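Please predict the structure of the following assembly.
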Amino acid sequence: MNNQQPLLSVRNLKTYFSLDEGQVKAVDGVSFDVNPGQVVGIVGESGCGKSVTIKSILRIIQKPGKIVDGQILFRHNGDSMLDLTQLNAQSEQMRQIRGAEIALIPQEPMAAFSPVHTIGNQIEEAILLHQPVSKQQARKIAIERLREVGVPSPERRIDSYSWELSGGLRQRAMIAMALSCNPKLLIADEPTTAIDVTTQAQVLNLLRDLQAQHDAAIIFITHDLGVIAQIADFVVVMYLGRVMETGPVDDIFHNPQHPYTKALLKSIPTVTSESGSRLPTIEGAIPHPFNRPAGCPFYPRCIEMMPGTCNTSTPSLQPVTDTQSASCFLYHKQTDDE
Amino acid sequence: MAQYIIKRLLLLPFLLFIFSIIAFILIQAPPGDFVTSYIAELAASGSAVDQAQIDALREQYGLDQPMTVQYFKWMGNILQGDLGVSLDWKKPNNELIRERFALTLALGVFTFLITWSIAIPIGIYSATHQYSFLDYFFTVFNYFGVATPTFMTALVVMYLAFKYFGISVTGLFSPEYVDAPWSWDKFVDLLSHLWLPALILALDGTARLARVMRANLLDELKKPYMEMARAKGMSEWRLVMKYPVRLAFNPLVSTIGWYLPLLFSGSLIVATVLNLPTIGPLLLRALIVQDMFLAGAIILIYMFLAVIGTMISDILLAWLDPRIRMEGS
């Protein structure tokens, strides 16, 4: 396999929701690549389109949402790139990719497991959907996976219901289910928000270890920059359905280019900051989705905003250093306007 | 699970004791007694009754004794399986009720099956195809079903059947079978009559049940486990049947409990209109003429069915929903 070629390449993805009140451009021209074995962190505030992006990749966007433009190229069967946007979301081929090659670790394991089916039943179901094995074999695989993710006495736990497990164990069971078919790409949607901080660290370490063992790539979604620093190799910063900046994790943290990334990093509390001082915040609020500003979506809150430029046209994502790209007119003149 | 069921069973005699007292108070509640209305009936037809005769009647039926004595005599007999004698029909209540009980049960079960087998698929379709043409169609149909009283439907069907097909749809048997002993032919005859009243009775229940199923399922369809199941690569149809439909059933199962007595009491007006030989009209008549032991026996049976129904619901719910099962043990 050619490791220079990405496993997943999202290009100019646009997913809109048509509501009675108007159109919400939840994802409006997002592009990024995921290389094999890489952990890509997507970071942004609530409502920035992170979740819609990954649901678009899995093709589980529900009405009234629709992918209106762009490509989602996935390396399927060796080297051929398959455009997932061209498949019927319900088609056999797409369903064979979902769960088997691209697996989801959801935000709230409590709600994502059915309360009236055992976790074993649900993990075995994922296995039986994609692997030609018998029920007994599926159960064996499920127990193995549970053991692998550190669930104690998996032979017993497999017959538990999700609400009988602790938050950490529930999330581990979810991870076991996602890993059950050896996916090439794991999508983790804020997997640590529902659990406490100590368990959070354990789950992150587990994901790191499993990723290395299985050589899977991970798209990790979070609003927590601390988590991103712990787990990601490469970072995509999103704001209002658009990518503001991308780059390797060290460069993003030590040499941010986009004013939004800079502002985000400033708002992290640090142990060295003077106690009692106010935490810097980003001025203003996220615009209402029906009321998006023309031009760069961040300009109303941007301290480096250039009148006449930022509020009239939308900057495109362009390389600004050797490793980073940013959508900002401070660095280039390329626009995304037709 | 076994522990849970035993717990419920142990409660049963206690509940029935309380209900028997309530049933007794209820049948004693109207002013006067059977003799009073019997005299009124006789007087209306012109014949006079003297006081000695009245007292003799009262003594014969034990109506002159204190309430508590009457209650214990009544209960004592019931515990031995004797529901007493109908003052009106001059027949043992056991016999009167047994005849009609089986027919009522047959009608009830039939109605129940029709209701569920129509309502559940409609509910599932409506929820999974919300705001589609058929969903709107079923919604209108359901409102129609809920809003139309069943006796009205019965009258309309009777009229149409008579006017256009010249057939009478009343009763549960053809004339030649009414008093005939049970045979295969009589059973077939029953089936050929039963479906229509069952359908009329089912109309109302179907409409309600379909609405409830649709609403329950719509709630479940928004749950995160749906998204997770989709992300696993399940086909939409399979996942809808496995997860949300299963969960949407739970609240419905708890309604089976009150459905059981309703099968018997709910069909009263339709049974009267269609002249069905079921328990409903029997109770109505018993209440009008103050045939207290017959009325009491029927009311007690209703209450018994309510308790049994609730128990069946509880057990089904515990069987369906592990969360309730765990709580119980």
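The interface with chain B takes residues 55, 58, 60, 90, 95-100, 103-104, 106-108, 111-117, 125-126, 129-130, 161, 163-164, 177 of chain A (CB under 8 Å). Residues 252-326 of chain A form one domain.
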